Predict the structure.
Amino acid sequence: MKLAEAVVLLVFLTGCATTQGTGGSGPSPSPGAKPAVKKELPWLNVPGGRMKTTLFYGPWQCRREFMNGCQRECASEGYKLMGCMWLADFKFDWEGRLIALPVPVKDGSRYGIYHCCCNYPTLTKEQNKARRDQWKAAMESFRQRWSERFGDWPTANTGVNWPGHHIRDLWHGGNPVDPNNVFPVQPSVHDAYNREYPACYSAQSPWNTVGPDLPYTDN
């Protein structure tokens, strides 16, 4: 593993580990791919240099390796896979200097965040409210810790913070404050996630079928 990749991976794994690498520059976009909704965060100082996080938002159909991962994940917990939703990609750019060789270096890495819609049991209305209250009480400190790892938590033009999306939703047993389960999402995209989650859990198209390796372009 390259030094820059190791730095980026170390920072990343302290935050959102429910991910799958999409392989550096990755494959070429599929025919007809559209530019993704994206958000670039400010540069953040990290050991040996600085890092910038760019968020690309779906939702997209899961690529084959993500769907296979969900098959294993659901089966390992005794559940059946109903669908898979590729939510976003995190792109990390790193630049700095090597200690042993004082020359500037640039590198990067990319990770896909996806959700496995297993046939999890659902919580009662009271249980769901208790988890949502737990999240509301922790939001401010959670956003601060996330910002320290990846760059400032995004806000709208009005200064209102973007919502935090729970990868495994609270109603299906998601942990409300686990850093591996929450990331910031543009409000309109968050609405799209919420509309599509029921279809994913109901094994409806397109979330029950495999999509292309790279369904979007960066620009």
Remarks:
- Confidence is low (pLDDT under 50) at residues 1-25.
